[in-house]
Amino acid sequence: MDRGRGDAVDSLSGEEDIEKAIEREMAAAKENSTGINQEVATRRKPKKIHRQNSREGNVNVGGFVHKPRSWKNSRRSRNGYGRGLPKKGGAGGKGVWGKPGSELLEAIEDVNDPNFDSEYDSADIELKAVVPEVSSEELKKKIEPIILEFFESNDIQEVIQSVEEVVPSNCRDVFVQKAVEIALDHKPSHREQTSVLISDLYGYVLSESDIVKAFENLLADLNDLKLDIPDAPIVLGNFVARAIADDCIPPRFIVDVKEKCDDANFQEALIHADTLLSMEHGLVRLDNVWGVGGPLRPVQALTRQMSLLLQEFVSSGDVEEASRCLKELEVPHFHHELVYEAIVMALEANNESTEKAICRLLKAFDSRVLITRDQLERGFFRVFDDLIDIHKDVPLAYVILDRFIDLCRHEGFLTESIISRFPSRGRKRFVSEGDHFVTKDKQNKSHEY
Fold first, then answer.
1. How high is the pLDDT of residue 361?
2. What mean pLDDT, rounded, does the chain reach?
3. What does the pLDDT average to over 156-163?
4. Which helix or strand (DSSP H or E) is residue 307 part of?
5. How many domains does the chain have?
6. Segment 154-178 mean pLDDT
7. Could you tell me if residue 385 is inside a domain?
8. Whole-angstrom Cα distance, residue 361 to residue 339?
9. Which residues pair with 59 in a beta bridge?
């Protein structure tokens, strides 16, 4: 019985030892697992905290960053990693525009396109400049300031640069056409500049086909041009002849174009050009088809033209024709010469009708502002300064001039400065009828001796 009791005690102690062993093993396993977790935790990369500048309106209270409400829909990363840039370069997310520049590759990035290439390389792209097509009317609006500026500056290089930048290479004929149309409304000197411009641009920015096409279009529009410019066929014929003389278009141009249209104005322009080219030494004379510009003419030639103008007016009395001739001279700075020649002509004629005609002409020029008051005064002052020399050829010059001044003053176009500067001939009074050659001053000097 004692033995059985001892065996039971031994069995109980054995079970307790087994439970304690199991508990020790579990405690050891738990310690090992916590050690591993701690080791893994020490190896983990520390989390970055993205610091925000206080200028952005953030408030740091107790280590917590209060972000503004504008960040509610922000696409920036919130996990603390990275530099705060948009996800996928702005191409990710719902309702976004996509990566910048992707709209240009829309046709290429279509997955359903059989030519789609997932490994698209931007290095294989070849970019070409695409010039948008401009209508003829818009192009003419851009050309007009170029031509008008050329009339002022006469700078060929500036025109070449402007044409290369503004006018496409396939529309250069529009430039020639617009240049000639503008020149038709301007003076002969501007037409001469336009002819020189076409000749200088030929071979650089203009080709023969451009000039030929431009003149063909101008001849086709000649009826419309004549509505504003009555002498358009003659002027355009001069342009065609001058272009042929400058070797810009071939001489067969007249023959080739003459058969294309039977219009009267069309044929008149070509016949006039053919006449200029067929006359003796025509190619040489065409260099002055527009005449010599006013500032380029010698003074003697201008004086002669003004004298012929005055002689024609005295005989015809046509003020309109005289005004037109004066405008064609294009020398507003030299109009004082016309005033001078007109007064001298009145003094030499010693005719009341001539004086009235000259007075009427000067009054018409003054009322139309063809001659300014400054040029008018300068012409009269020149006559006053040369009156002593004029008196040698015209003994009654003082008397005639006095009468002419009164006539002009009565018409009301003389200024006060002209009237005040009118010279009066000093009279030498004789003591008696017998002292014909002894003046009063000489007689006083003889009494002193």
1. 93
2. 77
3. 92
4. helix 299-316
5. 2
6. 91
7. yes
8. 10
9. 66
